[in-house]
Amino acid sequence: MKKLYGLFILFALMLVISACSDDSSGSGDSKDDSGESKDTGEVEIFSWWTGAGEEDGLLALIDLFEKEHDDIKVENAAVSGGAGTNAKAVLATRMQGNDPPSTFQVHGGDELNKSWVAADKMEPLNDLYGENDWMDKFPQDLIDMVSVDDEIYSVPVDIHRGNVMFYNKKVFEDNDIDIPKTFDEFFAAADKLQDAGIVPIALGDKEAWTATQIFENVLLGVLGPDDYIKLFDGEIDFDDERVVEAAEKFGKMLDYIDEDHASRNWQDSAQLVANGDAAMINMGDWAKGYFSNDLDLETNVDFGYFTMPETEDDFTIITDTFGLPKGIDNPDEVKEFLTFLGSTEAQDTFNPLKGSIPARVDADESEYDEYGTDAMEDFKNTRLVPSLAHGSAASEGFLTKADQAVNIFVTQKDVDNFISALQNAAPEM
Amino acid sequence: MAMAKQQKKKISKDQWTAIAFLVPSIILILVFVYGFIGWTGWVSLSNYNTIVPDFSFAGLKNYIYLFNDFRFQADLRNTLFFTIFFIGLVIVTGLVLSILIEQKLKGESIFRNIFLFPMALSFVVTGVVWQWLLNPSTGFNKFLSVFGIEPKWYTDTNILAGFQWGSIEFGVPVAIIAVVIAAVWQMTGFSLAMYLAGLRGIPDEMREAARMDGASEFQIYRKIVLPMLMPITMSVVIIMAHISLKIFDLVYAMTGSGANFVTDVPGVYMFETTFKGNYYANGAAIAIIMLLAVAVFIVPYLWSSRKGDA
Questions:
Q1: What is the largest CA-CA distance in chain B?
Q2: Has residue B245 got a pLDDT over 90?
């Protein structure tokens, strides 16, 4: 009897344990079964490009490169999930274990500079820029974002803009609303929409960065680009009265969001705008790809776009870049691949599919749609500033704490608490 | 004792073979389980909170930081109430269902399999499905709204019976109940199976004897069946406790941290702070705290079962 009972417990434990281990391997969902990947003749590209448009773009890139280079095979080691968090976890493990991928996706700015460059894991690419005459092909602001002390560490492949507000054209027309340019106009428009029974701003903050993104754009609007950059360089304190003002404006915007925001991700909230349940959404311009490719909406017919209030002359930049880690076996072949990634040919293949714009200023405009050409024009003529929410403006340590502070603020709306949380985290920028 | 000493001197050939077979796995476990636990403990006492490794000794700094941190305090609160509700409901529903199934009904095995089936799923699957079912704007609320009730499920930021404690509001987070429902749905089959096995182990003669003595059915369950199921209940509590204290996948797939961290748990915090924020030492400290929390349940259990064997 006792024996039987013991056996049963054992069986039950086995069930539980096997269930647990199933989950951990299932959620990682890593496609790399490498190990042998570092042999000469093979280049491994590591990214979190597994979504619809971006995966197409990546595969097209790999095809094109392999066609031009018979002797080099490209292995796609993409890791899906968590807006890159899962991939970053895998990457961190591999980098710490001295098993770096040949090249990996990393946002330009502090996500690169304050982590892998600071850890001395990256090779400078100045000679690659020299050989290819890239110094005047990429905007100087952008090159600065991927440089530390005049050493350039990665090649930007695509550009997204973060300070865009997408809106439902029909809702705006029905309620007779003009595109707001200032905060006052914006709040007036939001009031009008709310009175009409429409949610003015859609937010899906199941992952906190969507709310952080609104905050950074309000900060940019209130501070202006120079002081925005100074803030993240530590030259302006977070208890500066203009930062407090920005927090208050951010809090006011949160009065206009949808009720169930915590249950939605950004795609869900974009759908609210597409259906006309909500009027606008602040989202990086990957939302444009979602609207036109996934939801079949027409640009400037079904949905329109404008810049966040008082940021018309600024371009919050999110850029995916690729660098050269130290300690790989075939740096020459990887450099060849990086040269390819930096070429107009590659960038004009990848970006139209992903719905982003090229990082080069001399790309072929005819490849891009109406939104793309608009964005390319602004990219050349506006001030480029790094995004906080996407890891470019400050270290990931600071960003993690800022996301937490924002998550608490969205519910509590306690400005003093919020400012002091940011102030406490500031030494880690 | 004297016997044991004598035996120690003579180890037979069979025993040597057994030891030889055990040694490799013991070494592997020492290195890859206990060695790494020790390493995690060491990291949790270091300053390794950047991507550049820094193993200088920090004392209890990371632990002090965590216990002062809003998010971690919220995690402890959420885990406490999640564990209480989860274990309580799994035991009650498992016991009730097993007693019902025990009543020799027709098609018993069909019911048993239906209730056991959710256990075959991964918590990730359960999380995704219940995320839709309990989504306030889709799911159950479409049906419930007919009756005018629209609970906000896991997006509810209210804390029941809340009072300010540390930097958080302490009380029952309403949102965690949604997660409890999903977890109970998945794990009830387990306690059901355990209790069924337990019920089968109670000899019919005992019940018969009680009946002969004039005990009512209710009395039989109260005075005989339930006490005899105590060891089973203990095992269910231990196994469920170690699941609920370490829960990660269900919450990560279903709700994430939640607004104001109402559904956050230490596992999710550990993952995000370590791999997103590069706070390795803080993450290690969370891991050690989780280990200690589970140990509080497991160690007394192992201790008592060891005594039982002797």
A1: 78
A2: yes
| CA distance linking residue A428 with residue A405, whole number of Å | 14
Q: Which domains does chain B have, with CATH numbers?
A: 73-280 (1.10.3720.10)
A348-366 pLDDT, tens digit per residue, is: 999 998 889 999 999 888 8
B137 → closest Cβ in A12, A260, A399: A260
Where residue B5 falls among pLDDT bands split at 50, 70, 90?
low
Enclosing H/E stretch for A147: strand A147-148
DSSP helix/strand/coil, A122: strand
Contacts of B228 (CB under 8 A, 6+ apart): B198, B201, B202
Give the model confidence (pLDDT) of B165-197 as tens digits. 888 999 999 999 999 999 999 999 999 999 999
Using a CB-CB distance cutoff of 8 angstroms, which residues of chain A are in contact with residue B194? 8, 12
Q: Which domains does chain A have, with CATH numbers?
A: 44-159+318-381 (3.40.190.10), 161-317+388-428 (3.40.190.10)
Burial A139-158 (b: 16+ CB within 10 A, else e): bebbbebbbeeeebbbbbbb
- Which among A9, A13, A118 is the nearest to B52, CB-wise? A118
What is the C-alpha separation between A380 and A373, in angstroms, rounded? Answer: 11
Please calculate the CA angle B288-B292-B293 and round it to the nearest 5 degrees: 115
Residue A12 has pLDDT above 60, yes or no: no
Please determine, for residue B116, whether its predicted confidence score (pLDDT) is greater than 50.
yes
Put simply, the answer to whether A400 touches B255 (Cβ < 8 Å) is no
Residues with Cβ within 8 Å of residue B235, at least 6 apart in sequence: A9, A12, B194
